[in-house]
Amino acid sequence: MSRATMKRRGIAALLSLTALSACAVGPNYHPPVVQADAKQAFMESQGSTTLSGQPLAANWWEMFQDPALNRLIQDAFAYNTDIRQAVGNLRRARGALSEAKAGRLPTTDLSAGYQRERVGADTVSTSTGLGASAPGEPSHFDFDFYQAGFDASYEVDIFGRVSRSIQAAKGDARASQAALDGVRISIAAQVAQAYADACGFAAQADVARETARLEGDTMGLTERLLQAGRGTQRDVDQARVLVEQANAQVPQLEAERRSQLYALAALTGRPPAELDGDAAQCRAVPRVKTVIPVGDGSALLARRPDVRQAEQTLAADTARIGVATAQLFPSVTLAGAATFGAPHIGAIGTSRSFGYSLGPLISWTFPNIAVARARIRQARGQADSSLAAFQGTVLTALKETEQALARYSAALEQNAALARASDAADDAAKLSRIRFDTGRDNFLDLLVSEQNRAAARQALAQSDMSVADAQVSLFKALGGGWENPPLVRGTPPAAPAGVPATAQYISQRSN
Prior knowledge:
The protein is of the alpha+beta class.
């Protein structure tokens, strides 16, 4: 057989190996089937006048129409430490993907060296068979040796180990992206809820102060009646009880308000000392007053990051079955090396200094493949677990949304009823005061009506905050808000100007 024929057959064999590398062992990933009824309209949205089947807006917080809330969420997206951590995890996953893709490229190594060598004369004589050196001859030989080399190896992906590794890394990177989107949703919801609660506790504290002022007017009236001989000390004491009960609520409500302001500072990447001035001044609970678009189950599952994360994790774990299966088969590596070596640097590159090696390397752990089979079982078990996790995540997404819709509907109904009750309690207290002033009602009737008014106002203020919290929880369950994030940055700038946060904090504590 001629040398040319051998060369042609060698090239044909290499081409055959390359063609085989398009095959990959292990199962191919197919997206899991989701039940048709999971993609329908939500049960709680049917027949509702406060919800619509329109797609959810990307920046749902803008529906509150509060510029301070918009700015706080944008700051959180840029500076929140949890988001920055998730961004770091995504970069790590993308780096792992780049490393996996590098498996399709040959591994190369360049080397160069210089040596000053000495060889004894007897060593040369012995190696050449000339016997010991004669007297008067040199006892040794000194010379320089220059060397340069290039090594390359390439794994022929016959059974798809590299391909499956790339698929697994892609799934991991996409899962990390979905995890980042999920963190953004969570942070946006936390900021909106902390802001609404800070405003809500401030509103409740204002209600308590107003109640204390009204009760103080009643107490002043009873004191004047006592001085005029028409009242009793018991009436004064009972009026004082209402005043102090209202005053007693203020410190706790203010403490809760400040607690939410501290939470806002941390969520936007700032220390607690840098309270946000706009949030510190807020006295009214933000609230969406329009119909909320919720879409349907199909849009929900496509939008929720946790569902996408679970699916991509399943895709990655399915690919890892192929990675483990490929270990049952031999691996083929093509290796080559070219070297130049000469005693003079000028001789490097001549034909006399050139040497090379080229050939395939086949390695196989057969017949001891127990470890490989054990890893396949592990990979299949992990894929089964990921499939169950995906199905569970779908059910959780649907459940959380239906629960949020039910609680939002109940919060609206409760708020409407409490608003009517507050209006009625105000009217009753006013009428009772008129009747008491004209002598038609006794002091006990006045006292009861004012107690009812205070309780109704406080309940309505709490309900206003509950409605805002229910709206934020609904938006979080719907899974929106990650679509148009700003760039993630490092240390945030100083708190926005306006009323200094520290001065506002001291002012509210002193009231």
